[in-house]
Amino acid sequence: MTAPVPRPVDVHALPAMLTALRLPSIQRHWPALAGRADAEGWPASRFLAALAEIELADRDARRIQRHLRESGLPGGKTLATFDFKALAGVPRARIEALAAGDWVETGANLIAIGNSGAGKTHVLCAIGHALVEAGRRVLYTRTTDMVQRLQAARRDLALEAALAKLDKFDLIILDDITYAQKDQAESSVLFELIARRYETKSLAIAANQPFSAWGSVFPDQAVTVAAIDRLVHHATILEMNGDSYRRRAAASRQSPEAVAPPTASSDNISDKLEEEAAQ
Ligand code: ADP
Ligand code: MG
After folding, report:
1. Are residues 59 and 79 in the same domain?
2. Is the CB–ligand 1 distance for residue 239 below 6 Å?
3. 104, 211, 213, 269: which has the highest count of C-beta atoms within 10 A?
4. What is the pTM of this model?
């Protein structure tokens, strides 16, 4: 069967046709490529394949850009800007393996626990960025924002739908889970999210407090235990109790030799800097 070809073929209609077909990259590149194909005597099939390849590659890039925008990931906190040497106790290879992202396929979790300024947000976001680059979908949110969003949905009797909508994300990063004390209703929506994603979709969590202190953040003991249980069942836990990166960076600006852990004489200045950084 021969394809119907309108005669004469109207080349002038090409831009409109490509727009209608949503092929912006072919639109942009075909004139130059056609010139080359003509000059080098390409067979029509090669010309067509080259155009299709360009559109597909650009489409992937556009999708990644879209996913990056929708992720809410802060720009700049990537592996490229991450100083692995500063992360005592967590080997670089471990972070790189996490950045490869296979673990999200089984809905495993990642939990970074450590003091303020240890780099928890940065490392989780860097892993998030790497996952988006690899074509996965990630959402970064402060835990309080997520809680508000889910509580609003519950008020509208749409919690189930709100949770279902989050299923599209391979990974949700909940930052600062222990930042503020949660009341019963806040804990309960958070638990719904954790329970829903358990063993199917991944969570990455940053916490300033060790698990033993979570009881003072979440009011209901039984819910806290159940939440921690589900979170850690299949989880990588990064214990990041290094010195505050902010403090060290500030101290090294003050005096280059103060980059090492603070000595007795540098305690005053670094404590002050930490107080400032914490504000
Ligand atoms: P936390 O979330 O643990 O409080 P952050 O990730 O916010 O700490 O780190 C504090 C600041 O120091 C941020 O500006 C972050 O980008 C930077 N930082 C922390 N650790 C590193 C690191 N290993 N390499 C580069 N920058 C870092
Ligand atoms: Mg943080």
Report:
1. no
2. no
3. 104
4. 0.82
